[in-house]
């Protein structure tokens, strides 16, 4: 992030350039915002839905729906996008569950299959280690209840504040803190077991 500093005749920084007042600037356009958030949203959806194709559909649907809100201020895009994506994921999960239970009423549902990761790095050993670490993390994340997984993704990975996360999840700030605390404890236990 570039911080523009203007100086007066005495070479003192302008008051708006103080370190405490620096905040990330929103992307200049909705296209830039969507390009930036797309890969993270896909990982979020893939962990939640456990299906690559459904994750792509959910993210694309959320992006298309956000285009209808292009006239909103850029500061509203982040919570609005995550709310739309979360609702789309819940809809897909409900449809899938209903369809599978209707077709196979006495069969257990097996939706824990890990996606196939493509090798996209120049160093095979490093790529393998990274893929293995991500697979462990993804396993630990998929073992979490949905609300804990959402709270962890939005607060820790997306770095949204508590109020915005509560708005996205449709719950109170206290619930967000509880879900996040439980998610961190569960992840710590699971990831320590793999060492």
UniProtKB/TrEMBL annotation:
One GO BP = DNA-templated transcription initiation
What CDD domains does the entry give?
Sigma70_r4
Q: Which Pfam families match?
A: Sigma70_r4_2
Compositional bias per record (Low complexity), positions renumbered to this chain: 11-22
Keyword entries, A-Z: Sigma factor, Transcription, Transcription regulation
Give the region (Disordered) as residue ranges.
1-29
**GO function terms (MF aspect):** DNA binding; sigma factor activity
Which ranges carry the RNA polymerase sigma factor 70 region 4 type domain? 136-187
**UniProt xrefs under InterPro entries:** RNA_pol_sigma-70-like (IPR039425), RNA_pol_sigma-70_dom (IPR014284), RNA_pol_sigma70_r4_t2 (IPR013249), RNA_pol_sigma_r2 (IPR013325), RNA_pol_sigma_r3/r4-like (IPR013324), WH-like_DNA-bd_sf (IPR036388)
- UniProt lists compositionally biased (Basic and acidic residues) regions at 1-10
The similarity comment for this entry is:
Belongs to the sigma-70 factor family. ECF subfamily.
List the NCBIfam families hit by this protein, alphabetically: PRK09047.1, sigma70-ECF
Q: What is the name of the protein in this document?
A: RNA polymerase sigma-70 factor (ECF subfamily)
């Amino acid at each position: 992030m570039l911080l523009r500093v203007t100086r007066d005749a005495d070479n003192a920084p302008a008051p708006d350039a103080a370190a405490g007042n620096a905040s990330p600037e929103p992307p200049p356009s909705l296209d830039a915002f969507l390009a930036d958030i797309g890969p993270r949203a896909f990982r979020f959806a893939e962990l939640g839905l456990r299906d690559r194709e459904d994750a792509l559909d959910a993210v694309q649907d959320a992006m298309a729906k956000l285009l209808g809100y292009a006239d909103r201020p850029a500061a509203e895009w982040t919570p609005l996008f995550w709310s739309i994506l979360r609702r789309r994921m819940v809809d897909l999960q409900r449809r899938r569950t209903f369809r599978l239970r209707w077709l196979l009423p006495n069969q257990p549902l097996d939706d824990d299959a890990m996606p196939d990761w493509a090798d996209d790095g120049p160093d095979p050993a490093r790529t393998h280690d990274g893929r293995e670490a991500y697979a462990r993390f993804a396993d630990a994340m998929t073992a979490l209840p949905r609300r804990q997984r959402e709270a962890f993704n939005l607060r820790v990975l997306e770095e949204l504040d508590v109020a915005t996360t509560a708005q996205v999840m449709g719950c109170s700030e206290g619930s967000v803190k509880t879900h996040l605390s439980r998610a961190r404890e569960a992840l710590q236990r699971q990831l320590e077991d793999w060492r």
